[in-house]
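Quick one:
INPUT:
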């Protein structure tokens, strides 16, 4: 059976940096996620927690780059008071990839704008709520290994992609 990696915060787990969940971002398709969860399709993960960061934790952004630059050692992930969390974010991304590979994950639904999970834009590293192009560390690593990443805003694109991958899966598990 096909498996999907999903940010744990999108499943209601309070693992965001501020100790909250992000399940409000999935309100429009919660029934679909519940169906997939009941079928054992979803593999929840929080790369930041997997990398050893506590909850809550200081907000962090990628300084001078994106997730790919972090993986190449050309950028860092820092908090507002310049505490460096780069190692934890990389460790968490590697653990998320290992989990995805262990479960045969074919795609990921990841929290938007996160320095870990952002797949279609991240914050600019200046803590001013300004977005820029790029992916977070986990999204970049998963993508590099052939696992496409989608944000909640791109859920219709994920559904379309799944329909193209496996018509039987689509008939059985997509409303």
């Amino acid at each position: 059976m096909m498996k999907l990696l999903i940010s744990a915060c999108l499943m209601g787990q309070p693992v965001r940096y501020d100790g909250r969940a992000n399940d409000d971002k999935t309100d429009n398709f919660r029934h679909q996620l519940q169906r997939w969860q009941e079928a054992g399709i979803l593999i929840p993960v929080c790369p930041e927690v997997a990398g050893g960061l506590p909850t809550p934790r200081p907000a962090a952004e990628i300084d001078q780059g994106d997730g790919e630059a972090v993986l190449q050692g050309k950028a860092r992930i820092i908090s507002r008071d310049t505490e460096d969390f780069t190692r934890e974010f990389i460790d968490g991304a590697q653990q998320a990839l290992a989990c995805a590979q262990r479960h045969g994950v074919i795609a990921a639904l990841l929290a938007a704008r996160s320095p870990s999970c952002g797949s279609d834009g991240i914050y600019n590293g200046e803590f001013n709520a300004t977005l820029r192009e790029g992916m977070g560390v986990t999204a970049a690593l998963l993508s590099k290994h052939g696992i496409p990443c989608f944000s909640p805003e791109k859920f219709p694109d994920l559904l379309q992609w799944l329909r193209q991958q496996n018509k039987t899966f689509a008939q059985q598990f997509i409303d």
